[in-house]
Specification:
Number of domains: 1
Shape: elongated
Strand content: under 5%
Number of strands: 0
Radius of gyration: 18 Å
CATH superfamily: Tetracycline Repressor, domain 2
Oligomer: single chain
CATH architecture: Orthogonal Bundle
Structural class: mainly alpha
Distance between the termini: 45 Å
CATH class: Mainly Alpha
CATH topology: Tetracycline Repressor, domain 2
Length: 170
């Protein structure tokens, strides 16, 4: 999945599947057995990215203080959006559209940010009236301004602004 993600990031959704197989150290037949279509591979990359983002919530919660966990997860979310933007055109070609795929990911991501925000509220780092879904919406907005090549650096700075604006007034 990581090789495919890197290939799609470098070359877009039309990256060579044969090159992906070669870079992953498998034959084309192996790749096509597991992912019979380009759309299947792209969908698997997307699902893997969502799962990694959801799992990161648990990892950050165990490893760092609440506010740092929230910030780290938000920065990882920016990277997730970058991947999603690259493969979105291909996801949109899925039979029936990507709405079910996005719906499932929305639940996972909402749950992750809700757990992080609630933990930060409980610790006193974040204001009590912060709605996790509002923060997720703001983060999506920050990440969807990909009109310039340096948008990810800008989005990372804006994550810090969101964190600062979410802090509890002491």
């Amino acid at each position: 999945m990581e090789v495919a993600k890197d290939a799609f990031t470098r070359s877009g959704a039309n990256a060579s599947l044969d090159d992906i197989a070669k870079d992953a150290g498998v034959g084309p037949g192996t790749l096509y057995r597991h992912f019979p279509t380009r759309a299947a591979l792209i969908e698997a990359v997307y699902r893997t990215e969502v799962e990694k983002l959801a799992a990161a919530e648990r990892k950050f919660t165990e490893a760092v203080p609440p506010i740092e966990a929230l910030r780290a997860w938000m920065l990882l979310f920016v990277d997730y959006i970058a991947t999603k933007q690259i493969i979105a055109p291909a996801l949109n070609t899925l039979v029936g559209g990507p709405s079910k795929l996005y719906e499932a990911s929305r639940d996972q991501l909402s749950g992750a940010i809700e757990a992080l925000v609630n933990r930060a509220i409980k610790s006193g780092d974040i204001r009590k009236d912060l709605d996790p879904f509002d923060l997720l919406r703001a983060l999506i907005g920050v990440s969807n301004v990909a009109s310039t090549p340096d948008w990810q650096q800008s989005a990372r700075r804006l994550v810090d602004i969101l964190i600062t604006g979410s802090r509890a007034i002491k």
